[in-house]
């Protein structure tokens, strides 16, 4: 049976506004194995769930996320840009998502974002919440900032973690082990099958992003990737079911 985990990228973001509670709830109801979402800090150092450094694209606000307090961020709509039906959706705090996820058997891939000058603050604010809600065994920490991941692992080495890459790295197996992570999240299609197999053979969990076509979903599942990030978890679950039916 194919065990490639399906992660809803920013929730079920094809049909719902990304990084909102309605998108996460939709992914859960579809049966996704996990959700992926982005966390950065407000001006008053509260971890909030939003992708961009600025508010302009996914809210009715403007300016930098980090220039606003959590109270100011909460006054904005995080759904009206997508559809007027989601006008009441707000920017979630990380704590709100953790509370929601506490009674749900889902893996949470938390992508750490924010200014490089805030690395210490990110680690000090996020890790205690994961322990408070007893979710450390269901969390994967990932980031394009490999330094913040390394810092987090020094404090909480028990956490599963991954580097995110946008290029075809030379000797990625060695690099991943040097950073100290167990996961390698790569931009599709920047791995050849033999490179993917070498990583898997080395015990590294590879997960491509962001995969929305049926053909690529099928290919990565046949490669036996540990997981796949997709905006369309419904399609990915159907593809996985079809593959399992053929076995």
Helix content range? 25-40%
> Count of DSSP E strands?
9
What is the global morphology? Answer: globular
Largest sheet entry? 9 strands, mixed
| Number of helical segments with 4 or more residues | 9
Low-pLDDT segments: none
Could you tell me the radius of gyration in angstroms? 18 Å
Query: Roughly how many Å apart are the termini?
Result: 7 Å
Report the structural category: alpha/beta
Beta-strand residue fraction = 15-25%
Average pLDDT rating: 97
Series of H and E elements: EHEEHHEHEHEHEHEHEH
Organism: Alkalihalophilus sp. As8PL
Protein name: Glycerophosphodiester phosphodiesterase
InterPro entries: GP_PDE_dom (IPR030395), PLC-like_Pdiesterase_TIM-brl (IPR017946)
GO molecular function: phosphoric diester hydrolase activity
Overview of the molecule:
With 247 residues, this protein is α/β, with parallel strands linked by helices. The protein contains nine helices and nine strands. Strands 1, 2, 3, 4, 5, 6, 7, 8 and 9 form a nine-stranded mixed sheet that branches. Strand 7, helix 7 and strand 8 form a beta-alpha-beta unit. Helix 8 crosses helix 9. The longest helix is centred in the middle third of the chain and has 14 residues. The protein is globular.
Secondary structure layout plus pairing:
Elements (H helix, E strand, L loop, with lengths): L4 E5 L11 H10 L3 E8 L5 E3 L20 H5 L19 H8 L5 E6 L6 H14 L6 E5 L2 H10 L4 E6 L6 H8 L3 E5 L5 H9 L3 E5 L4 H9 L4 E4 L2 H14 L1
Parallel strand pairs: 1-2, 1-9, 2-4, 4-5, 5-6, 6-7, 7-8
Antiparallel strand pairs: 2-3
Helix pairs in contact: 4-5, 8-9
């Amino acid at each position: 049976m194919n065990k490639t985990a399906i992660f809803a990228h920013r929730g079920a973001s094809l049909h719902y506004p990304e990084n909102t509670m309605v998108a996460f709830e939709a992914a859960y109801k579809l049966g996704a194995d996990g959700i992926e979402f982005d966390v950065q800090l407000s001006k008053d150092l509260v971890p909030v769930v939003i992708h961009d450094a600025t508010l302009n694209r996914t809210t009715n606000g403007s300016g930098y996320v980090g220039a606003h307090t959590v109270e100011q961020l909460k006054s904005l709509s995080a759904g009206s840009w997508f559809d007027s039906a989601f006008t009441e959706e707000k920017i979630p705090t990380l704590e709100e998502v953790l509370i929601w996820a506490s009674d749900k058997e889902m893996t949470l891939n938390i992508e750490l974002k924010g200014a490089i000058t805030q690395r210490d603050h990110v680690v000090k604010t996020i890790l205690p919440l994961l322990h408070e809600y007893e979710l450390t065994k269901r969390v994967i920490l990932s980031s394009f900032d490999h330094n913040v991941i390394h810092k987090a692992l020094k404090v909480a080495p028990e956490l599963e973690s991954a580097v995110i890459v946008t290029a075809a790295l030379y000797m990625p197996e060695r690099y991943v082990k040097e950073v100290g992570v167990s996961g390698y999240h790569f931009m599709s299609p920047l791995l050849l099958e033999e490179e993917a197999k070498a990583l898997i053979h080395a015990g590294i969990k590879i997960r491509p992003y962001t995969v929305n076509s049926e053909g690529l979903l099928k290919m990565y599942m046949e490669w036996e990737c540990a997981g796949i990030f997709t905006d369309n978890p419904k399609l990915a679950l159907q593809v996985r079911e079809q593959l399992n039916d053929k076995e």
